[in-house]
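Field reference: sequence -> structure
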Amino acid sequence: MAGYSVAPLLKLIEQFERLPGIGSKTAQRLAYFVLNMPKEQAVEFSNAIIDAHEKIRYCEVCCNFSEGELCPVCKSDRRDKSVICVVETPRDAIALESTREFDGVYHVLHGAISPLNGIGPDQLYIKQLLARLNDDTVKEVIMATNPTVEGEATAMYISRLLKPMGIKVTRLAYGIPVGGDLEYADEVTLARALEGRNEL
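Structure field:
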């Protein structure tokens, strides 16, 4: 591309290269694909990105993505508010929802404790979780962080905070492979992991 460069095209390629898992060749393919879109489709694509940035916020209760003050799960009268499932990312909550096995509510931490990456408990939404436990509504907290070193450390840290409060803390059973991410697990594996969760 060095000998023949069109500035807007290079800029588009650079933007695609910023996305996780996208190398330079894939970024070039995506840029050319976008250039070949009909203009209306390209505008629709760019508007979807802008809309997502402007309209999506964090739910005031569970910190999941939401369009309004509360996400659909927290708003629902059909959900069991006495059971909170703690996950690392909004993608993990979506993965668990797809099992149709869980009727409680979620809490999204937006990461896991990782000292090597400079992420401590204060960078996560742990204080917001503790604030939800002030009344006697919550009876169980399911730690559904990923089965990685960081996920385990986060689960243990939170369980130590919750034990003195007399709240039952459970961990997803290992139907999920160690080192794997929830978002890539199939529905059956996730359902079994939910059913076989253990107390910490």
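Note: DSSP finds eight helices and seven strands in the chain.
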